[in-house]
Amino acid sequence: MSASLVDRLDAALPQTQCTRCGYPDCRAYAEALASGAADIDQCPPGGQPGVARIAAVLGVAEKPLNPAFGVEIAVELVARIIEEDCIGCTKCIQACPVDAIVGGPNLMHTVITAECTGCELCIPPCPVDCITMAEQPTLPAPYLRAAHSLSRYRARGARLQRWQTEDEAARARKKATDPLTAALARAKGTAP
Question: In terms of residue numbers, what domain contains 128?
Fold first, then answer.
């Protein structure tokens, strides 16, 4: 599988990271397309123009968007949080692949409209059903915002990886300096 083919397919996708195609992100769908494991008609946010872009990259005939994966929308949608109902659980923040939701624990959350890709991944984890999708006719189509959305997705991934590394290092330091752990290790004859 050619990396350049995967890159070209990834560039043809809208980068909403919505998972509607059945893959965890747009890059994984591009890899599946390049290997022949996925079909060109699985990306509802890209719509029929997206199917045409993918077909052109692969040099295959265009086909209709497969409704089993969703339908093409006429007007861009963005998440809206009904702020008076929000309990500040942060589950929507954790689910958003592009960090388009801001707020803190036990505080009201809100969506940064210009950053929202309309992926709807924030809706299922909300325990109080305070997230709806609203039309945003002035928002450009996802593929026109794809490079920006991809950079936000990558930045989020890097931040989460950094946090995980820092957390693991902190746990290791704590374990190494915890008197109980050290005493148990001495009793077992192993170093902490």
Answer: 77-135
Residue 140 lies in a domain: no
pLDDT in tens, 121-172: 999 999 999 999 999 999 998 889 999 999 999 999 999 999 999 989 888 8
Q: Give the CATH number, domain containing residue 112.
A: 3.30.70.20
Same domain assignment for residues 129 and 95: yes
Residues 126 and 155 in one domain: no
What digits encode the pLDDT tens for the residues 22-52?
A: 999 999 999 999 999 999 999 999 999 999 9
Listed residue (78, 105, 76, 85) closest to 93, CA to CA? 105
Looking at the fold, whether 58 and 84 belong to one and the same domain comes out as: no
58 three-class SS = helix
User: Dihedral, CA atoms, 44, 49, 52, 57, nearest 10 degrees?
Assistant: -90
Amino acid at site 184? L
How many residues can be counted in the chain?
192
Alpha-helical segments (H) within the chain: 3-12, 26-35, 47-58, 91-95, 146-177, 179-188
- Whether the full predicted model's pTM is greater than 0.85, yes or no, is no
